């Protein structure tokens, strides 16, 4: 569907006319016995191979297929560029090489956007471009619409996301970005596999939403006549597996949260969650540093990345700060301003509603307001308030805090991890507190999961767990700061 905001009426008319012209070509081709959408053919060679294998005076024949992206006609010859999965190749048709009938067929019926098969030998043009001298060609798939010349401006973003295939056709940066995303996931899998982790799959449909504080999507199972929830996190199922003896597990899959859409949030997103028995969160922070450095080195060839205009070296240890330390480092707020007797005044100065918050929550609210967006360099925020961590173990040094961290890079959260609460009595009490919060109007509070409590009663070993947002990690590695740029089909409002 053409985006109604993008073309002018004049462009609409041109595209409509072009569609009719190309459709007429389809009818004429069929009249001549030529199928515009041919039977499948096996093509084992690529554009990149033609270029990489080229040697002067080599008579090797190649057969490649690709989409026509440019075309220049010069009387009895045609230069065109085709693109396949490997890249771009110039093809050259000359009437005395392919014959007059085939040349006229190409000249009259092949358009930009068509997918063609070409057979010929490689040569180098006067300008030094390795090209394919076509001896024969075949139309494989007719394109009925003209391709967009380029994307620019806000209106074009609609076409870019709604018709991602056009973006992939015409924008090599987009294609490279999604290739990088795929390599990030592959590297991550290798990293975990090499360290004795087992990849698993857990349910997407949950009878009880849990594992994170978020508003779930609700659906209904007709045969069982029961409501189910799209999962907001696989956490509670993965920890059941650790109870069962799978001591190192990870899952890369979708989560769903019924929340707003922004440059950082999509209601359907990809995460990796992993759990490791007999380790703790200080160890796992170093583990994540190694993981991020490995991904960057593998995907882009260096641990030196750009975050906007900022250069960051992922091979260096990440900063580790408490919320209070981050506040003082990234604002004019002093240690005196954070004293319990002055915290209300400090919150009011920064327009933070504080009347119902505990002291630790007030400090954390200040952190979110004045420091979070300034954490450009990778920074682990530790000493989280226990009230904000219903599934985390208490910090052995301070019972008011959780043994937890969150990793921020470029001003956004990329990872969350903590020592898992394995005391079933404590966990049951915290679930009860969450139920009270839900009854008081907190739509994101967790439900009471009795089956999970039973699993804990069979003994969960000391375990650390981590979640990493893969969409945001792809943003980091590709220096792209809208989540819609790294999700092939982001959530968009349906047009009426």
Describe the structure.
The chain is an alpha+beta fold and 496 residues long. The chain has two domains: 38-141, Nucleic acid-binding proteins (OB fold (Dihydrolipoamide Acetyltransferase, E2P)); 171-331 and 371-485, Bira Bifunctional Protein, Domain 2 (BirA Bifunctional Protein, domain 2, 2-Layer Sandwich). 35% of the residues lie in helices and 26% in strands. It contains 15 helices and 19 strands. The protein has helices at residues 9-31, 47-53, 95-98, 100-109, 154-162, 164-170, 172-194, 235-243, 281-300, 323-330, 343-349, 359-370, 424-439, 450-457, 470-478, and strands spanning 61-74, 77-84, 87-94, 115-124, 130-141, 198-199, 205-206, 218-221, 226-230, 248-256, 268-277, 304-307, 310-313, 319-321, 379-385, 394-395, 398-409, 412-419, 463-469. The strands form four sheets. Strands 6, 10, 11, 14, 15, 16, 17, 18 and 19 form a nine-stranded mixed beta sheet that branches. The chain has a five-stranded mixed β-barrel with strand order 1-2-3-5-4. A hairpin with a 2-residue loop joins strand 2 (77-84) and strand 3 (87-94). Helix 7 crosses helix 9, helix 7 (172-194) crosses helix 15 (470-478) and helix 11 runs parallel beside helix 12 (359-370). It is elongated, with a radius of gyration of 29 Å. The two termini are 12 Å apart.
Task: Describe the secondary structure blueprint for this structure.
Layout: H1 9-31, H2 47-53, E1 61-74, E2 77-84, E3 87-94, H3 95-98, H4 100-109, E4 115-124, E5 130-141, H5 154-162, H6 164-170, H7 172-194, E6 198-199, E7 205-206, E8 218-221, E9 226-230, H8 235-243, E10 248-256, E11 268-277, H9 281-300, E12 304-307, E13 310-313, E14 319-321, H10 323-330, H11 343-349, H12 359-370, E15 379-385, E16 394-395, E17 398-409, E18 412-419, H13 424-439, H14 450-457, E19 463-469, H15 470-478
Parallel strand pairs: 3-5, 6-10, 14-15
Antiparallel strand pairs: 1-2, 1-4, 2-3, 4-5, 7-9, 8-9, 10-11, 11-19, 12-13, 15-17, 16-17, 17-18, 18-19
Helix pairs in contact: 5-6, 6-7, 7-9, 7-15, 10-12, 11-12, 13-14
